[in-house]
Amino acid sequence: MRKRLIGCGIVVLVLGLASSLYAGGIINKQNLSADYIRTLNRNAAYDSADATVYNPAGVMRMENGLYIRGDAIYLDKDYSNKLPNNFNAFGVPSPFNAGGGTLDSDEPSIIPGFFALYKQEKWAGFFAVTVPGGGGFVDFKDGNARTMVLSAAFGGLLGTGLNPAAAKQQIEAESYYIGYTLGGSVNITDWVSFAAGVRYVDAYQEFKGKASGPLGSVKVKIEREDTAWNYFAGLNFAPVKDLNIGLLFMANTPLNFESDAHDTSPGAAISNGVGWQDGSREREDLPGYLALGVSYFLIPDKLRIEPNLTYYLEKQAKFEGQRFQDSMPGNSYDLGATLEYIFNPQWKASVGYLRTDIRGMSSKDLLPEAPELDANSLGLGVVWSPLERLSLTLGGVKVWYDSQETKSFSTRAPAGTELEKDVWGLSFGLQYRFF
C-alpha cells in the first residue's frame, strides 16, 4: 500500500497556498483599500483616491487636485483542517491513522495599499500599488492534512510506519502578488468619462514543508515567481445628480511561474512529481474580471446605496497546475451592497454585505492551507474629515465561510477532512489633497 501511495503521486505539493484575503475568485482578491473593508462594495466609487483601482473613470467626479493616500489592512486568520480518525487511499481501506484532530494556522496578515491621483477639469492621471492576489503567510506548526498524507507516503523512511500522526510535521507558505497600476481618465461628455491603463504584477510564492521521525526526515522548499503586464478600461456614467454607474474590465494577467526547488525527498519525488523541479515553468494566470457598481442616493446628499457585482473571468485564464486538472475553475463572483449615511461634511458611516461564490472547484482540489470557500462578509466603518483636504478611514470586517468536507482521497487531504477558515479584520486609511 505504501508503494502505491508514492507511485500515485501522494507527495505532490501545490503552491499558491497563502492567500489571506477573503473576497474574490479562486486567485483574485479585491480588498485593496481601507474603504473597501468598511463598505465591501467600491465598483461605483468616486469619493476617494482608491477609486483609481475600483472605478478609475469615476475619479473625474472628484474635486481637482493632487491626492495621496496610504492604507493598511490587518486580517486575523484562523485556517484549520479537521482530520478524520483514519483514511482510505484511492478507495482502498488502509490502516493509516490520521489522528482525528484539528490542525491550524493562526498567523495574521497586514496588507498595504498606496494611491496617488492628480485630477484636473477634463483629465486625470493616477498610480497605485496594491495586492490583487495572495498577500499573506500561513504556518501550520504541527502540520496539516497535506503533511499527514506526506507522512503516510514516507512512513518507512521516517520510521513512523502506519501511523503518520506520529511524525513531527510543519508546513508554511507565503504568497504575494504586488500590482503596480498606472493610468488616466478623461471626460467624454458632462456625464460620461473613460479610463484606461496598465498594471504590472510581480508575483512571488514560497512553500516550506517538513516531516520527521526517528529514522529520518523529508524537507522541501520551493519558490516560484514571475512578472507580467495586463491592461484595463473603464466607463463611468452619471446621467442624473443622484445616480452613478461604474464599469471596469480588467484583462487577464499571463503569469508563467519559474520554480527554484530544494528537495530532500528520495529522487526529489515531491518537486518532480508536481512538475516543479528546479528551473521548470508552469502557467497560472491571475484572471481578469468585469466589475459593475451602481450608486444611488435614496435621500439626496444623505443616504446612499450601492449594489455591486464582480465577475471573475477564470474560464478564460490558463491554469496548468495539477490541482486544477480535476476541476473546472470559473466563473466565480462577488455580489453585495452597501449603505452609507453622510451626517455632515466631517462624518460619514457605512455598512456593507458581500456574498462570495467560488465556482468550479472540486473538494479534492481545495488547498488545505487556504481553502477556496464560499463566504458571507459584513463590513462597517466611518470616514472622518477633520479638515477639508484630510480624511481618515476606519473599517472593520467579519467573514463567515461555508466549511467544506473533502469527498475523496487526494494528494492534498484524506477523504473526510473538514476545511474551515475564520477571518476578521480592521483597516485604516489616510488621505490628503494637496491642492
Primary descriptors:
14-stranded antiparallel β-barrel, single chain, mainly beta, 435 residues, 18 strands
Describe the protein:
- With 435 residues, the chain is mostly beta strands.
- Helices cover 8% and strands 50% of the residues.
- The chain contains six helices and 18 strands.
- The chain has helices at residues 2-7, 34-39, 51-54, 145-153, 155-158, 269-274, and strands at 65-82, 102-105, 109-119, 123-140, 168-187, 192-212, 217-237, 243-250, 256-263, 281-283, 289-299, 303-312, 333-344, 347-357, 375-387, 390-401, 404-405, 418-433.
- A 14-stranded antiparallel β-barrel has the order 1-3-4-5-6-7-8-11-12-13-14-15-16-18.
- A hairpin with a 4-residue loop joins strand 6 and strand 7.
- The longest helix has 9 residues, at 145-153.
- 52% of the residues are buried.
Q: Helix fraction?
A: under 10%
Structural class: mainly beta
Radius of gyration: 23 Å
Low-confidence stretches: 1-20
Provide the β-strand percentage band. Answer: over 45%
Ends apart, CA distance between termini: 72 Å
Shape: elongated
Q: Output the helix-strand order.
A: HHHEEEEHHEEEEEHEEEEEEEEE
Total helical segments: 6
- Please tell me the overall pLDDT: 90
Strand order of the largest sheet: 1-3-4-5-6-7-8-11-12-13-14-15-16-18
- Biggest sheet details: 14 strands, antiparallel, barrel
Tally of strands: 18
